[in-house]
Amino acid sequence: MPRRQKQLTMASSSSLFLLAGLLALASWQATAYDPSPLQDFCIADMKSPVRVNGFACKDPMTATPDDFFNPAMLDQARDTKASKVRSNVTNINVMNFPGLNTLGISLARIDYGPLGVNTPHIHPRATELLTVLEGTLYLGFVTSNPNRLFSKIVKKGDVFVFPKAMIHFQMNLAHDKPAAALSSLSSQNPGVISIANAVFGSKPPISDDVLATAFQVEKDLIHWLQSQFWENNNY
Length: 235
Prior knowledge:
The chain is of the alpha+beta class. The chain is 22% helix and 25% strand.
């Protein structure tokens, strides 16, 4: 093959490889979050037997203003005294607000009693933007390996973002006053995995051999941790 033709062939191959890489990246970005709606709205039909990624749509001709409304009363504080971690999370997502289906957004109000904690957890499908409504919080998130912590003390009116699927937490620093926050999440159904609950409260339990090795502790401690009541503060 002539040298010039060989160079052109190599350049063409490199261009195709670069194009394929760019298309793969674009495809990943397109599928990384909730899919964009292909119609004005898609109110979830919670009774439909059809199983899709999300929920099937009810007939749009039967939609009413109430489908786009939820009397959530998010201006009202929730009870935190019944919680062992002294916090209460009120979720507004597609499961209790079908009008959010395909819209890629949801809300949560978090109430904290004195020294209350929203324990370390992740949202596997959403970035979270938190606004402090009342009080002073210590909060932060941990990155993937090498597990760098980004933490800050925030006050009323401050805003903090937790990137998608990062372990994060909040704590009310006041010993004598409640606190509250409102979070926006970039998914109609963000999901939540509480770290302690998942590791020590899974059903069936994770092998004590695995956990003892992972945490470098004796099995008796693992058994004690697994015997605790791992509370869900999401209501």
